[in-house]
Amino acid sequence: MALTNQRVDVPVIVDESKCLEKCHACIEVCPLDVLVKNPETGKAYMKYDECWFCLPCEKECPTNAITVQIPFLLR
Amino acid sequence: MYDDINDELQPWVEMLQSSAVEDRLVAVKTLQHIGDEDAIAPLIDALKDEDTNVQKIAIAAIWELNNPVAIEPLMACLRSPDAEVREEALSALKELIAPADLMMLLDYIQEDNFYMQLNVLILLRKIHDAQALPYVLPFFESEQEELREAAITTLRYLNQIETCPPALALMNDESPIVRREATLTLGYLQDREVVELLCRALTSDPDWQVRGRAARSLALHKNSIAIPSLAQALSDEHWQVRKFTARTLQEVADESVIPDLIKCLADEYSDIRRDAATALGNIGNPDVLNALQQTLDDPDADVRIFSQKAIDKIRQKQTAIN
What we know:
heterodimer; A: 75 residues; alpha+beta; Alpha-Beta Plaits; two-stranded antiparallel sheet; 4 strands; B: 322 residues; mainly alpha
């Protein structure tokens, strides 16, 4: 699986100002386990550029910090 | 504070008492994910949290646990000033309530709170019990149109109600939203004046949705008294009204509407051409065969198929007579 180098290019965008450090909701629901916590900031991010666009991470986030950018052809 | 809380739940239940809203959000979300029935008491307490996001997640968590002990605490959320909390609680209660909860709902509906009354009227639709009728009727005269609309809609869901004279008055309500629901409800009532009221709505109500719904309700009554009004509605300015009228004429029609139905075979909207062709086929008069033949080269495939079916039906009928 390819590691993501540019975090702004991945489909799962995390608004770090809203992300809660103690919360792991998105990481737990991701079926591909591609979301992790940044150990320095405690915020979630997409570590591997692999996504099913299934959306539980966006739905489960208690602060609506996650936006999944669905490709136009999948909308 | 709580009995029977296991070690896995303990830290999250404690965190739920935190003064920081971020901590309480994380705690309630985690309790939702754990999904342990033992967490029901702290989750019920979280319904009273000052933060509406915590309340919403607690409602979702309780909903997933599907435990009837949460019904009363969720009912209290129905009077919340936050629309999303009320909506979430209503969705949860729709799945949790059972016919045995009818008396509790009837107690709550008497509370002088607009949101509570509105939501209980919606919940009564899940129970279908005619015992609720005396509690629903006063809302027909409510000053708020939302309550009048909810009450007349609920009436449609109550079993064994065949006549309800107070409902007929709502056909003249000043609000089109109320009249629309009243028109649909009248489709299920058997009062003597119902068909006449629906015919009047079909031909003269200023709101096109009321006229369209009147046509749909008349299809349920299948009363031949409505035929002249239906014939008139075939030339309504709104295509949806013409469409539902043509559909109703598939159920109830006689030869007097043939000229109006033939005009509809040239309607701008293909749904109307299709439904008119089917209605003509159901009447079965061979005089319309020429008109139907001309629709066999209609640009819409649906119209061609249904016209052919109508032609076949008329020919079969002729063959059977001969």
